Amino acid sequence: MASDATSLPAIAILGAGSMGGAILHGLVRSGLAGAGVTATNRTAAKAAELASLDGVESVALEQRPEGNAEAVASATIVLIGVKPAMVPDLLREIAPHLRPGAIVVSLAAGVTLERFESILGDDVAVLRSMPNTPALVGRAVTGLAAGNHASQADVALVRRLFETVGRVIEVPESQIDALSTISGSGPAYVFLLIEALTEAAVGKGFAEAEARLMAEQTFIGATALLEASGEDPAELRRRVTSPKGTTERAIAVLQAAHLDGVFAEATDAALARARELAAGA
């Protein structure tokens, strides 16, 4: 393990696609990947997209079929970013090549720690993570659950990695799927709300560019105010909602639509799908 308080040990990201790629970009932006990062992808085209990142060795498996094995042989932390269905075969491929003391971290939705440990064995520390895509800009929320063989030092090291791309919440594995329905899928909910508010603005006669500016910057500004103020969101909402004013009338419509119930139903649906994935459906 690295003793340097400011840098991280060597990292391998196997499957640097959407989420793995977001973690990779955020990690590079942090400047803390001092020992280097190896990222693997199936195609040369995808690997080429990452080749210019500082401190990153980008490997195309179609050109170097042994690339995953080579990547993990020199890595202290190994992130598994391939699709859930591909995870078991990948773990069997890399298991003989993991260095002593390596920590394997899952980015794969629905694949349990038990599944990882059953393939990798008792001498490998495994953690399960659930980051979200704002990792790309250093503003992720990552849920982190430790396996049976992960020490406190292992968890602390992996936490440091994910803290380079945002905030970390340590939870038992039983809460990882529920967390994924809030923070994991959450950016999509926010983008959908921005889409809807933009469409409402267009419907009131604003040009598309003006509508997008109003909707997007209102969300960005509101969340920045929430973060800077430290206030409860309900309190900030009340301050904007003057009695008998226009905002009060609009909020009444949203509350009458049972927005809280809609979000509960949506996240319940996401949780049911996570459980289906865990069952192999």
From TrEMBL:
Main subcellular location: cytoplasm
Catalytic activity from the UniProt record: L-proline + NADP(+) = (S)-1-pyrroline-5-carboxylate + NADPH + 2 H(+); L-proline + NAD(+) = (S)-1-pyrroline-5-carboxylate + NADH + 2 H(+)
EC class: oxidoreductase
Localisation per UniProt entry: Cytoplasm
Entry-linked Gene3D superfamilies: NAD(P)-binding Rossmann-like Domain, ProC C-terminal domain-like
Domain Pyrroline-5-carboxylate reductase dimerisation: 173-277
Record has Chloroplast as a keyword: no
Name of one Pfam family that matches: F420_oxidored
UniProt EC number: 1.5.1.2
Keyword terms: Amino-acid biosynthesis, Cytoplasm, NADP, Oxidoreductase, Proline biosynthesis
Domain Pyrroline-5-carboxylate reductase catalytic N-terminal per the UniProt entry, residue ranges: 11-110
Known pathway: Amino-acid biosynthesis; L-proline biosynthesis; L-proline from L-glutamate 5-semialdehyde: step 1/1
Superkingdom of origin organism: Bacteria
PANTHER family recorded: PYRROLINE-5-CARBOXYLATE REDUCTASE, PYRROLINE-5-CARBOXYLATE REDUCTASE 3
NCBIfam families tied to this protein: proC
Family classification: Belongs to the pyrroline-5-carboxylate reductase family.
Functional description taken from the UniProt entry: Catalyzes the reduction of 1-pyrroline-5-carboxylate (PCA) to L-proline.
Protein name (Swiss-Prot/TrEMBL): Pyrroline-5-carboxylate reductase
Record organism: Microbacterium deminutum
